[in-house]
Amino acid sequence: MKINSRINDLFSRVAIALLLIMLMIGCSKTDEVKMKSPDGNVEVEFLLKKDGSPNYLVMYKGSKIIDTSSLGFEFRDMPPIKDNLVIDNVEVSNISEIWQMVWGEQSEVENNYQEVKINLAEKNESDRLMNVIFKIYNDGIGFRYEFPEQKNMNDIVIMDENTQFKLTGDHKVWWIPGDWDIYEHLYKTTLLSELKVNVTDFDNQLAQTYIPYNAVNTPVTMKTDDGLYLSFHEANLTNYSGMTLLVDNEKFMLQSELVGSADESKVKITTPFVTPWRTIQIGEKAGDLIESKLIVNLNEPNKLEDISWIQPMKYTGIWWDMHVGRMSASWDYNSGNHAATTEYTKQMIDFAASNNLMGVLVEGWNTGWEDWTSAEREGIFDFVTPYPDYDLEEVVRYAKSKGVEMIMHHETSAAVTTYEQQLDTAYSLMKRLGIHAVKTGYVGTIIPKGEYHHGQFMVNHYRKVLLHAAEHQVMVNAHEPIKATGIRRTYPNAIAREGLRGQEFNAWSADGGNPPEHLTIVPFTRMLAGPIDFTPGIFDIKIKYRENNQVNTTIAHQLALYVVIYSPLQMAPDLIENYEGHPAFQFIRDVGIDWSETKVLNGEIGDYVTIVRKEKGTDNWFLGSVADENGKSMEIDLSFLDADKKYNATIYKDADDAHWNDNPTAYVIENKVLTSEDKLSLNLVPGGGCAVSFFPVK
Ligand code: NOJ
Ligand code: CA
After folding, report:
1. CATH 3.20.20.70 domain extents, the chain
2. 541-599: per-residue pLDDT in tens?
3. Minimal CA–CA distance to 461: which of 417, 425, 497?
4. pLDDT(43) > 80
5. Is residue 504 annotated as part of the catalytic site, yes or no?
């Protein structure tokens, strides 16, 4: 009965206005198609120039934001597709629906757009077909290419995709380089005209780095002189190479440059196929980009039937020990200081059980760490054999008795063949033990040689692992991953990933770690792609086991990250000894992990941002606000709170004299009763932050 009314309710809200207009355009071929978003603010014009070359431009509220930009492809052993095209027909449909997130930033997502499919044909003897499909939303656009089955194109090799984005001014850009292997770089902020990728600025200490061009990785975010925010990315990256964007400083032009492989080709594929969506998110406020659901909307609905085993969770584990080198704790059993022991894991399980953390991750449990960075890494790691001091079965038994979920760890060291050979045994073991989550890792140069982390070969590998995991009821948290492109909608076991400079850099990098501004840029760039396993929550800011390293924020800033950084997996990574006796740890115990609502209250990229989220299934709200090295004072309007309730608010804030470097651990906890009519003044010190929990008064 209850379920029925829920379904009815759903159907009545899914107002699908499907208007299909097939415009068969006769001999007087048109060479221009106009389309717009449901609210009319975003307008796109597709046009064929005199030479039959396909182009498009984008307007927002009547002003051009993308000037005439061309589309096309280059192939191996075949002429490019770039001109000589005619429009065969145009299909238009208008869609408005609401779908439910399995887990996410909010319960329901509105998916409302105009779709226009433009079927193109070559008018020369090659007679090839290529369609361009646009979806125009209120918060931006997506477009992709479709190559139908056809007589003159079957198995093809794409040497490059030439999709242009011609910008209309010298915008301010937040970017990382177009590295083919790793996204773990600090963001730079420059004008488009000054965006120069100097490779030596981006030496990475953990992974292979290959930065061939003056290109950036996506999402890349910009602010125009008119104060508009734009972000460029891709959605549904499937059986294709990741896209970087080549930057022309003089023409203010971005052009797609796909990640390659040893034979210099970019994509090997057979018709019929579609490319990933090329996306442009548009916001009048910086926070609009975070609230936009364009990337997941451009992916297909959930394909997993049984999702009962998919569960957002907070977790802790044996991890930071190794990164800070505590008592030279090591992944490697033979070091004499092996961290992943049965006994230490049981301590972690106890700690998780008594602190509302559902999961425990253990790294260094399996054999192979002795040689994990050697050149010949195939056949080294074993994903089913524990070291002698780690009793996997006993650990799992103990965890179950305490209601704690174990999180498996598979560091592949990028020896992909070795991993693929063991997928069956490794995932069958997890299934047998009832382990529903794995953290994977791909440190190092990809073997086979000549492949890159972000090329088609690896895109397909990551997908293969995700699907294999789903069959074994396992959620995947990939490190050194391919970027998120909204696949989480289709396969919600894609629970989180790294793909940025995470907390770990603060433990060992020689460049001073992540600067205070880092997490004021990440929400507007990397986070637009999807959930991040950043591992916030370090309390021992000065890292006592590392003389030359520290975290460059206050403790209050670390707490705020549990709300600011979106992820259905959030770690409490610091050592137990560093949490003990800290009243601020209560916020990590309390904070939600899955949300029914998310709102960005304020923010400027690289300066500060404040986000509030309502916990799914409860009436609890949580607020997180972080600032860069300049700090930020603000007044928060609490009108987001439920109007009919009073809340016990616990405010975890920087002490007046706190400072990310000089006094990072000074915080104050304040309790207040507040309602939606109240205002809250926040004073974030340099590198500071504020976290607030709001529980309804019973
Ligand atoms: C790099 C990952 O980002 C980190 O979290 C992990 O501990 C190491 N690789 C070892 O797998
Ligand atoms: Ca990493």
Report:
1. 303-499, 517-529+550-698
2. 999 999 999 999 999 999 999 999 999 999 999 999 999 999 999 999 999 999 999 99
3. 417
4. yes
5. yes
Quick check: 586 and 649 in contact, CB under 8 A? no
Q: Whose CA is nearest to atom 2 of ligand 1?
A: 479
The average confidence (pLDDT) of the chain is 95
Q: Is 443 in the pocket of ligand 1 (CB under 6 A)?
A: yes
Bridge partners for 92 per DSSP: 21, 116
Q: Is 628 in the pocket of ligand 1 (CB under 6 A)?
A: no
319 Cα nearest atom in ligand 1: 7
pLDDT band at 29 (very low <50, low <70, confident <90, very high): low
Identify the helix (H) or strand (E) that includes residue 43: strand 42-48
Task: Please say if the pLDDT value at position 20 is more than 80.
Answer: no
Q: Residue 691: in which H helix or E strand, if any?
A: strand 689-696
Q: What does the alpha-carbon distance between residue 552 and residue 549 come to, in Å, rounded to a whole number?
A: 9
Q: Is 634 helix (H, G, I), strand (E, B) or coil?
A: strand
Q: Which helix (H) or strand (E) holds 471?
A: helix 456-471
What kind of fold does domain 303-499 have according to CATH?
TIM Barrel (3.20.20)
Distances (CA, A) of 411 to 81, 363, 370, 419, 441: 41, 8, 13, 9, 4
Q: Tell if the pTM clears 0.70, that is, is over it.
A: yes
Question: Is the CB of 363 inside a 6 Å radius of any atom of ligand 1?
Answer: yes
Question: Does residue 174 contact residue 521 with C-beta atoms inside 8 Å?
Answer: yes
Distance between CA atoms of 531 and 536, rounded to whole angstroms?
A: 13
Options 2.70.98.10, 3.40.190.10, 3.40.50.2000, 3.40.50.880; which CATH number does 31-297 get? Answer: 2.70.98.10
CATH 2.70.98.10 domain residues, the chain: 31-297
307 contacts 492 by C-beta, under 8 angstroms: yes
Report the nearest-CA residue for atom 7 of ligand 1: 319
- Asked whether 139 lines ligand 1 (CB < 6 A), one says no
Query: Which residues are paired to 48 by β-bridges?
Result: 54
Residue whose pair of structure tokens reads 């990315």 in the numeric block = 233
Q: Which CATH architecture has domain 517-529+550-698?
A: Alpha-Beta Barrel (3.20)
Task: Determine the angle formed by the axes of helices 342-353 and 392-401, rounding to 10 degrees.
Answer: 20
